[in-house]
TrEMBL record:
InterPro entries: HerA_C, P-loop_NTPase, T4SS_component. SUPFAM superfamilies: P-loop containing nucleoside triphosphate hydrolases (SSF52540). It comes from Ciceribacter ferrooxidans. Residues 439-486 are annotated as: Disordered. Residues 14-516 form the Helicase HerA-like C-terminal domain. Transmembrane segments: none annotated. It holds the Pfam family HerA_C. Residues 472-484 have a biased composition (Polar residues). This is DUF853 domain-containing protein. The lineage of its organism: Bacteria, Pseudomonadati, Pseudomonadota, Alphaproteobacteria, Hyphomicrobiales.
Length: 518
C-alpha cells in the first residue's frame, strides 16, 4: 500500500462515477496532522484501519484506540469477502493481498491488553483537575499539592499517595498556606471526595507502576514495520473523561519526551484520537488553548495527530486549521446543526470545479469520502470524491482466543502485567531509584559544592523524620520496623521511599499540559 513514499488511500471518481486517479497521503506530510469525520456507519473506522496499516508498513509506529472492538481485526490477516474483492477491483487495487499488521494491545484495565498505567506525578495538576472536573478553587489546591510534592520530594504515584498528601495538607493548612498560598479545608475535602469517586470508577487501575514507557509505543518490528498500539476502549468509554484525559496525557508525554526533528521524511509516530469530541466537550478555554498549542508544536517532534469524530464542528477552529490531511465521510443534513456541519466541512476543502462539495458530502456512499491531503510544498490537494481502499487485515473484531495469543507473544509481554507481583516490581524500581539517587546525589555534591548543604527545604510536621525519610530512600530499606500504623506521615514517607522514576534523575519542571519535562 506504499508507492514512492506515499500511502495509497483509495481511488477517486469522476462525476459520472468512472475512475479518476489513485489518492495518496504523502509520508513526509504525515506529521501535518489529519481529520477523519463522518456520520455513524459511514466508514471512519475502516479508514483509520487502512491508514494505520499503511503507516505501519512504512515503518511508522501508530497509536490508536479501539472504541467498539471492531478495530482489533487489524492484528490478523483479512479474509477474501466478496464486497472487499469488488471494492479492490473497482479502485484498481491489484494484487489485493491480505496481511496482519503487527499489533500490541493495551488496556487500562489489563483485560483486553497489556496494562497501561501512569503516576499521579507524571499526569500533573492540569490534567488531573480535568479528570476530576475540579472547580477553580480545587484546582488551586491541587496545584499547591503538586508544588509541595515536587519540591518536597514526595513522589505521588497512585491515588492513595495523593489522598495522603491531601490529608496532610488539611492537617497543616494554616502553616502551608503561609508558604504556598491559600489552602481551603473545604476544597481539600471535596478533592478527597473526588478521589474516592475516581477510585470507585476504576481509575485506580490506571495510577501506579510500572508506568507506560513511551518507547514501548514507538516500537518497530525486525522487518522494519511500525508496531500499532491498539488501546481497548470499549469499557473505558463508560468513563469518557478518563479516556480523554488518558489520551491527552499520552500526547503530553510524547510532546515532552521526544526531541525536535523538524520536518522528517516520515513521522516518528502517528496518533489517532478517536471520539475526539470528548477532548473538547465542556473543556475550559485554558485547556483547549494548551491542546491547540501541543498539537501545533508536536509536529516538529515528528508526531502526526489524527482526530476522528462524527462532526467536524466537534473540533475547535484553531485546532481544525492545523489538520492538513482530511477524509470526510458522509454527513447527514436534517437538523440545522447538521446542515451547518456540512457547510463548514465543505468550506474547509480546496474546491473541485467538477462537483459541489456540499451536495457531495450528503450523497457519499459507505467507505467513500471526500479526500484532500497535503502535496507539493505542503498545500492541500484539490478535494476528490474517493472510494477508500479495503483493508488487508480483517474487517471486524478478533476472537478472545486470538487476542490472548497475540498478547502472550507480544514484545511487551510480561513488562506491564505484574499486577499481583507488585512488591517485586516495587523493589526492583526502588533499587534502581536508589542507584539513580546515589548517582544524582554524587553529581549534585560535585556540582554544587558544600555551600548549599544547609539550605534543605522542609515541610511542617516532618521535623527530624524528614531526615529519616531521606535515609530510607537512599538506603532502599523500605518499611522500618518502628512503623506501627499507617499514619499520614508514614504514607508520605513511604511515598518518599518510592523515589521511583518520578523525582529521581528528573528535573521537576512541568510542560504545557502539566506533564513532567525531561
Ligand atoms: N473502505 C472500505 N472498504 C470496504 N468496506 C468498507 C469500507 N469502509 C467501510 N466499509 C463497510 O462499512 C461498514 C461500516 O464502516 P465503519 O465501521 O468504518 O463505520 P464507522 O463510521 O466507523 O461507524 P461508527 O460511527 O458506527 O463507528 C464496515 O463494516 C464495512 O462493511
Ligand atoms: Mg467506527
Amino acid at each position: 500500500m506504499l508507492v514512492d513514499g506515499k500511502l495509497f488511500i483509495g481511488a477517486s471518481r469522476n462525476p459520472d462515477d468512472s475512475l479518476n486517479k489513485p489518492e495518496y497521503l504523502e509520508l513526509k506530510f504525515g506529521n501535518r496532522h489529519g481529520l477523519v469525520t463522518g456520520a455513524t456507519g459511514t466508514g471512519k473506522t475502516v479508514t483509520l484501519q487502512i491508514l494505520a496499516e499503511s503507516f505501519s508498513e512504512a515503518g511508522v509506529p501508530v497509536f490508536c484506540a479501539d472504541i467498539k472492538g471492531d478495530l482489533s481485526g487489524i492484528a490478523v490477516k483479512g479474509e477474501a469477502k466478496d464486497f472487499l474483492l469488488k471494492r479492490a477491483e473497482t479502485i484498481g487495487l491489484s494484487p489485493y493481498e491480505f496481511r496482519a499488521a503487527p499489533v500490541i494491545f493495551w488496556d487500562l484495565y489489563g483485560e483486553q491488553g497489556h496494562r497501561v498505567r501512569t503516576t499521579i506525578a507524571e499526569m500533573g495538576p492540569l490534567l488531573l483537575s480535568r479528570l476530576m472536573d475540579a472547580s477553580e478553587a480545587q484546582e488551586g489546591v491541587l496545584n499547591i499539592a503538586f508544588k509541595i510534592a515536587d519540591q518536597g520530594g514526595l513522589p505521588l504515584l497512585d491515588l492513595k499517595d495523593l489522598q495522603a498528601l491531601l490529608t496532610y495538607m488539611g492537617e497543616h493548612a494554616s502553616e502551608l498556606s503561609s508558604q504556598f498560598g491559600l489552602i481551603s479545608k473545604a476544597s481539600v475535602g471535596s478533592l478527597q471526595r473526588g478521589l474516592l469517586i475516581l477510585e470507585q470508577q476504576g481509575a485506580e487501575n490506571f495510577f501506579g507502576e510500572p508506568a507506560l514507557s513511551i518507547s514501548d509505543i514507538m516500537r518497530t518490528t525486525s522487518d522494519g514495520r511500525g508496531m500499532i498500539s491498539v488501546l481497548a476502549a470499549d469499557k473505558l468509554m463508560m468513563n469518557p473523561r478518563l479516556y480523554a484525559t488518558f489520551l491527552l496525557w499520552l500526547l503530553s508525554e510524547l510532546f515532552e519526551e521526544l526531541p525536535e526533528v523538524g520536518d522528517p521524511e516520515k513521522p516518528r509516530l502517528v496518533f489517532f484520537f478517536d471520539e475526539a469530541h470528548l477532548l473538547f466537550d465542556d473543556a475550559p478555554k485554558v485547556l483547549v488553548d494548551r491542546i491547540e498549542q501541543v498539537v501545533r508544536l508536536i509536529r516538529s517532534k515528528g508526531v502526526g495527530v489524527y482526530f476522528v469524530t462524527q462532526n467536524p464542528l466537534d473540533v475547535p477552529e484553531t485546532v481544525l486549521a492545523q489538520l492538513g490531511n482530511r477524509v470526510q465521510h458522509a454527513l447527514r443534513a436534517y437538523t440545522p446543526r447538521e446542515q451547518k456541519a456540512v457547510k463548514t466541512a465543505a468550506e474547509t476543502f480546496r474546491p473541485n470545479p467538477a462537483f459541489d462539495c456540499e451536495t457531495a458530502i450528503t450523497a457519499l456512499g459507505t467507505g467513500e469520502a471526500l479526500v484532500s491531503t497535503l502535496e507539493g510544498k505542503g498545500i492541500p490537494s484539490m478535494v476528490e470524491r474517493t472510494l477508500i481502499r479495503p483493508p488487508a487485515s480483517r474487517l471486524g473484531p478478533i476472537t478472545p482466543a486470538e487476542r490472548q495469543q497475540l498478547m502472550a507473544t507480544s514484545p511487551v509481554s510480561g513488562l506491564y502485567d505484574r499486577d499481583a507481583d507488585r512488591e517485586s516490581a516495587y523493589e526492583i524500581l526502588t533499587e534502581r531509584a536508589r542507584k539513580a539517587a546515589e548517582a544524582e546525589a554524587a553529581r549534585r555534591a560535585e556540582e554544587e559544592g558544600k555551600e548549599n548543604a544547609g539550605g534543605r527545604w522542609t515541610l511542617p510536621g516532618f521535623g527530624d523524620e524528614t531526615e529519616e525519610g531521606t535515609k530510607t530512600a537512599k538506603n532502599g530499606t523500605r518499611r522500618s520496623s518502628g512503623y506501627q500504623r499507617e499514619s499520614v506521615l508514614e504514607a508520605a514517607m513511604k511515598s518518599a521511599a518510592r523515589s521511583v522514576a518520578t523525582s529521581v534523575g528528573r528535573a521537576l519542571v512541568r510542560g504545557i499540559l502539566g506533564s513532567l519535562k525531561r
